[in-house]
Amino acid sequence: MIERYRTIPKESQALYEDKKSRFIASVKPVSSELQAQDFVKAVKSRYRDASHNVYAYIILDRPMVRKFSDDGEPSGTAGLPVMEVIKRQELFNLALVITRYFGGTLLGASGLVRAYGKSASLALDSSGIVEKILCWKVELKIEYGLLGRVQNTLINRGYRIEDTIYTQDVSIIASVPVFEFDAFKKCIIEAANGNVLIKKHESSYKDF
Fold first, then answer.
1. So what's the pLDDT on residue 62?
2. Mean pLDDT of residues grouped by 10 in the chain (208 residues)?
3. Which end of the chain is more exposed for a tag (fewer CB within 10 A), N or C?
């Protein structure tokens, strides 16, 4: 699995108008090509009366999936500019559909490229960007007297505390990037003077 990647945190939409043509840009985070295709179908169904429903998506897979469609616009003037905006921002695992309602005035090839690119950028701006980092769920079992010192070490080094469980000892549940685990382990052992039990559980992506 890839250790980190940039994507959007939520589904979003943006509107853009050029010479009375309306562009509705809809974007959604996805984790598979099937989810991307379902989103494209849903947007096309919602705007079935539109002139065009152009799309692009990039999915982290083996191999990576990159697909786009001009949906009847002149070749290279719609889907490709949308894809280029996604690639330029180095984003993955998202699908972007731009719906166009023709306003009666031709935009020309350069005008279409500009309009679809601008619409894509507005949609991504409205959603925002997060970094997904693959993290281990790590359990730290310590004595109560070490709690403050270990908590401060985690906070000061930017590790995320997910839970604290109080029993005979204290268990702190933290999220640790997989590529930092060795350094994390070393600093926690030093903070606890070696009096800590470190247990690594499953891994999952966390937003940062």
1. 85
2. 95 97 98 97 98 98 94 98 98 98 96 98 97 98 97 96 96 97 97 97 94
3. N
Domain count, the chain: 2
Query: Is residue 110 located within the same domain as residue 51?
Result: yes
Contact 120, 98 (CB under 8 A): yes
Q: Which of 79, 108, 128 is the endpoint of a domain?
A: 128
pLDDT of residue 171: 98
Q: What is the CATH number of the domain that holds 138?
A: 3.30.70.240
Q: Which amino acid is at 18?
A: D
Q: Are strands 160-166 and 170-177 parallel, antiparallel or unpaired?
A: antiparallel
Instruction: Give the Cα separation of 6 and 9 in Å (integer).
Output: 10
**What span, in angstroms and rounded, lies between the C-alpha atoms of 169 and 146?**
10
- How many Å apart are CA 71 and CA 73, to the nearest integer? 6
Tell me the residue range of the domain where 74 lies: 4-128
Shared domain for 115 and 64, answered yes or no, is yes
CB environment 193-207: b (16+ within 10 A), e (fewer): eeebebeeeebebbe
| pTM given for the model | 0.85
Bond preceding residue 177 cis, omega within 30 of 0:
no
